[in-house]
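Lab notebook page, bench 4
Experiment: in silico fold of construct C2
Operator: M.H.
Input chain length: 404 residues
Purpose: comparison with the prior construct
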Amino acid sequence: MTVADRVWHHCRLATLSPRREGIGIVEDGLLAAKDGIIVYAGPKADAPTGLDAARRTDCEGRWITPGLIDCHTHLVHGGNRAEEFELRLAGASYEEIARRGGGIVSTVKATRRASEGELVSGAQRRLDALLAEGVTTIEIKSGYGLELATERRQLRAARQLGRDNPVTVQTSFLGAHALPPERAGNSKAYIADVCEMIPQLAAEGLVDAVDAFCEGIAFSVEETAQVFTRARECNLPVKLHADQLSNLGGAALAARFGALSADHLEYADEEGIAAMARAGTVAVVLPGAFYFLRERQAPPIELMRKHRVPIGLATDNNPGSSPLTSLLLTMNMAATLFRLTVDECLAAVTREAARALGLSAETGSLEAGKRCDLAIWSIERPAELVYRMGFNPLHARVWRGRTT
C-alpha cells in the first residue's frame, strides 16, 4: 500500500516525464505526495490500490504542471536603469552605453551602495511577481558587486530570499560579469581577484555554481577558462553567458568544462552547439534580452534541434537588458520571436530548466521521488500558458507539498 498525506484528483497532468510522449499528458490524472515528495503521478486508473490521504483536493478538471523554474536571473541588485532605456530609444546601443561607463557598471555603483536589507527588499518585489505565476525554483546570480564584500552581500541576500519564501533558490557567483572601475584596463588582475573570491564564498555556503560573461565587452575565453578552472578545483559546477553579442567560441568553452548551461547563444555556431550536445550542456535562451535590446540575430534553434541540445528558457531578469518578471510572457516571447513550440516552451521552464540547474533528480517533472512542486492552472489546454499575454491563469501553487 502506498502511503500519502495529500492527493490531488479530478485533474489533467502535464507530467513532463521523459518516459511519456511530448509533455507527458495524462487526461484523467491523480497525483499523491508524502512529506513533500511525489509518490504517484499518472492515470487515476493506474494508481496503486488503497492510495488515499486525509487531505484530498478536487481540482475540478484543472491542469497540473510541475512548478515553473526560472533558471537564469539577476534578481538581486540596487537601482534601475530606466535612464539607459531612454538612451537606447534615442539610438544608443547596449555596447555604446557600456563603454561610456553605463550598463553593468552603473548597476554596480548602486548595488555597492545598498545594504543587504535593501537588496533583499528590492528583490522581494521582483520575486513576488514570479511566485504569483507559479515559479517554485529560481536561480539568482551575483555579479553587481565586482568585489568581495558586495558579491557576498548579493549572495547572502539571495539565500535570505530562499529562507523568507516558499521557493527553492539556487545561487550563481558571477564575479566575472564585468571589469570594475578600479580595475579598468587590467582584466588579468581582476580575474585573479575573482579566482580568490570563489573558494572564500564557497566556504561560506553561498555558492551553488559559478558563472561568467564571455564577450568582447567582458572577458576572453582564456580569462573565463581561468575562472572555470578555479571553480572546478572547488568542486563547483559552471554556467556561462555565451555568444550573446558575438561568436567568441563561448558555447564550445562551456562544453569543454561540462557546464550545466550556456545561456543567450545568439551567435553560437554549429561547432559550439554540437560540442554542447556531446557535453550534455543545456542551451538556455533568453528572449527578454533579445526583445528589450531589439537584437536581430536569434539563437540557432534549428541547430539545437538538429543536435538534440536540451533547450531551457528564463526571464534573465536584470535592470539593464531584461527587466522582465513574467515567465509566462517569456514563453510567449520564445514562441513568437524564436519559434519554439508549445511543448518546447513548457519543457524549457520545467524539465530542461531543472537540468540547467543540476536539479533534474529533484524537480522539473511530475514523477515519483521528486519534490511535490506544482502549478495548478485554470486552463482548457496547456497551449494557453504560451498563447496568452498579460494573463495569469494560476489557480494554486504548491511548494514541497504545501499550497502557498
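Observations: The mean pLDDT is 96. The longest strand covers residues 25-34.
Next step: discuss at group meeting.
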